[in-house]
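lol so apparently i was supposed to do this last week
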Amino acid sequence: MIINSICVCGAGTMGASIAQTLAQAGFYTILYDLNPVMLENAGTRIEKNLGDQTQKGRLRLGEKERITGLIRFTGDIQSCVADVFIEAIVEKPELKLALFNQLAELNHSECIFASNTSSLSITRIAEKIKNPERVIGMHFFNPATIMKLVEIVNTTYTNSNTTDTIVELAMNMGKTPVLCRDSPGFIVNRVARPYYIESLRIVEEGLTDISHLDMLLEATGFKLGPFKLMDLIGNDVNYAVSCSVFEQLGKPARLMPSPIQEQKVKDGKLGRKSGEGYYPYPQKKN
Ligand SMILES: NC(=O)c1ccc[n+]([C@@H]2O[C@H](COP(=O)([O-])OP(=O)(O)OC[C@H]3O[C@@H](n4cnc5c(N)ncnc54)[C@H](O)[C@@H]3O)[C@@H](O)[C@H]2O)c1
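anyway here it is w/ nicotinamide-adenine-dinucleotide bound
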């Protein structure tokens, strides 16, 4: 399938970074969000990131303007007309489904719906959408501008045109697509769950504190300790993924979500994006 335009839905941590990566790969990209503040922040973050790349000599002079010129920011769903949609809104199945169904009304019947969900069942989403063969998971990692891996999640409905188009798109974005079947947490989030949950349990049991645990695991070779990583991901997102994988795998005790993380979400301490999580992140004034 020839892709003329792509629409990324959700301009938060992931959506903004995916839109930037698409534009850097030369794709005309629409970035849609309900919340105008999120759209504005996404624009600022993309500008800053491209500015940093220019300063470091990774982008030639004038490239920043060419890249930002390929992104159109919008809060109007009526203008979301594209061949491929990459959804990166909140981790709530009913909202993702409602969004795809709304977009299906506005777009041609072969447009592809790719979800960046970390843990929700792509099959459950696909079966409630007209032409479920065009629904697929396209799971990027944070930050999407840097991380190479993209899990491409197929359901029993997904057809080969959809898979081939999304695999090719990921490769054109400079990514490494890895095919996997739809299952709770796919591959990476299933393997990674104990990293977070066991670390939270160690802190709950008072065996050590957050910063020592991060330090220790970083010293063993992990790039980021679990608490720094949860703050980067967003504690709301990470907690939602923990709950979702726990439920879908039949509530095994070893994957029980942590009350510490639940409390962080209740307190609005979501990590870097909210200015505080397990660590403080003073927000820079413009
Ligand atoms: N944060 C991560 O590290 C990470 C990594 C991989 C995948 N994901 C997945 O990506 C998705 C987004 O995560 P995030 O961390 O970017 O979240 P986020 O909270 O940073 O951003 C979500 C954005 O979606 C917008 N939104 C909510 N409902 C909407 C709607 N109906 N229409 C349009 N916009 C809407 C919000 O305004 C917000 O800007 C989730 O499914 C998450 O599981 C997250």
